[in-house]
Amino acid sequence: MFDNLSERLQEIIRKTSANATLTEENMQDALREIRRALLGADVSLNVVKSFISSIKDKAEGENVVQSTNPSQTLIKIVNDELTKLLGEKQSPLNLNTNPSIIMMLGLQGSGKTTSAAKLALKLKKEGKTPLLVALDVYRPAAILQLKTLANENKIDFFAIEEEKDVIKIAKKSLEFAKEHNNTILIFDTAGRLQIDSDMMAELMLINHSFNINEKLLVVDSMIGQAAVEVAVNFNEQLGLDGVILTKLDGDTKGGCALSIVYATNKPIKLIGAGEKIEPLEDFYPDRMANRILGMGDIVSLVEKAQKNIDVKEAKELEKKMLKAEFSFEDFLKIQKQIKALGSFGGILSMLPLGISKNDTEKISHEGEKQFKKIEVFIQSMTPEERKNPNILNASRKKRIAAGSGMDINELNNFIAQFETMRKMMKGLGGIKNQFKGKKGKMPIMPPKFPF
User: Fold this and answer.
1) Number of independent structural domains in the chain
2) What CA–CA distances, in Å, run from 337 to 254, 273, 410?
3) 213 Cβ partners below 8 Å, 6+ apart?
4) What tens digit of pLDDT does each residue of 74-112 get?
């Protein structure tokens, strides 16, 4: 998501930064290009007008042309306004009662039921005990889907077979939650192919019958500006607390996200990607703005690493590397930890590399390809060879190359790079020992991995 907008804005930034000076004329050119980029990303015209007007007012107020670094000043203004347009600051879920109730809303096909399970998984990982409640009494497949997702992810589930009274089901689920110490109920309400009066009447009845902590609208980011109309309608009828954007990994323009926040004045609270059941992620406007402008998102990457990387294992691997005891088996462990952070493309998008989308895709593709090759090489080795790289002679290499179905030269190249890395890390270990007990920090020398 935001790929096209990101690429266009980054190109505008590069052109602006390349100017020896920033004049009134080329600043107007930059604003005109930003306007086109936003419209091309399916951002509504009202939002674009407001956005450009705000940038222009700030640029004139701060006298960008006469500032010390005009290009950087303009970029900062664009970044600030983009952050503001995305919601300014992260909006956490309001779950201050026990039990708390989250009401999931959305049209059929928006990913509502899947998002309910993803949200439950997120809350479970945070130490809470969620209960998934099936309130879609019109589509039996929805109840079965929710039950299946709950069972697969070991999440508590509640439904009353054949019951059509949603208020009765909801009341019973509340009693069940109190008996089983569930701290949060997630109501998966019925969706429709389009908004109708019956649908809204039922949702309003649920809303008035219970103390709902969060009314979250699940929006499929791939439906573009139609998503804005849906959000406005739901907000007018029910008073939304926030939005969950789904399918952010799809090839979408991203304009609907900017337009929804502007049109409803409600924050995007959570985001999700793909059909795979992984926890929803909190949405941070400032981090997303940075990523759109090619400034990376190191904070999110670090947080992801803290959640997914085994710190104890990482420290053990570091010790082995510094003593040149690092094996092919250990290399596989590192690959596994990197994979836990997501795809190469996802990781690269969080780094401030300042390169184009095409270059990012090429690096990502090549990285994935090399990792796969290395994995096949290592898996073609015997357990003894994986643990002790020093025993690899010519005949063993020939067998491994044949077993992996790859060229012997590629294998030799990988092994040579692996040995170079081991020597480098041993040298780094010596430097680290020299700095022990001394003031100041050891110089950082990142290892060159063989991929």
Assistant:
1) 3
2) 30, 20, 24
3) 93, 94, 95, 96, 97, 100, 101, 102, 241
4) 778 888 888 888 888 889 999 999 999 999 999 888 889
Same domain as 112, residue 70: no
Q: Is the pTM of this model over 0.70?
A: no
Average pLDDT over residues 375-387: 88
Inside any domain, residue 446:
no
DSSP state of 9: H
In DSSP notation, 386-400 reads HH-GGG--HHHHHHH
Percentage of the residues of the chain whose pLDDT score is greater than 70: 78
CA angle 381, 387, 388 (to 5 degrees): 90
One domain, residues 177 and 257? yes
Same domain membership, residue 113 and residue 224? yes
Task: Single out the residue of 170, 89, 99, 184 nearest to residue 137, CA to CA.
Answer: 170
Domain holding 148: CATH number? 3.40.50.300
Looking at the fold, whether 348 and 247 belong to one and the same domain comes out as no
Measured distance CA(451)–CA(59) in Å, rounded: 45
Ramachandran assignment for 211, one of left (phi > 0), alpha (psi -120 to 50 degrees), beta (any other): beta
Q: Determine the distance from the C-alpha atom of residue 325 to the mean position of all C-alpha atoms in its chain, rounded to a whole number.
A: 35
pLDDT digits (tens, 9 = 90+) for 213-241: 999 999 887 777 778 888 899 999 999 99
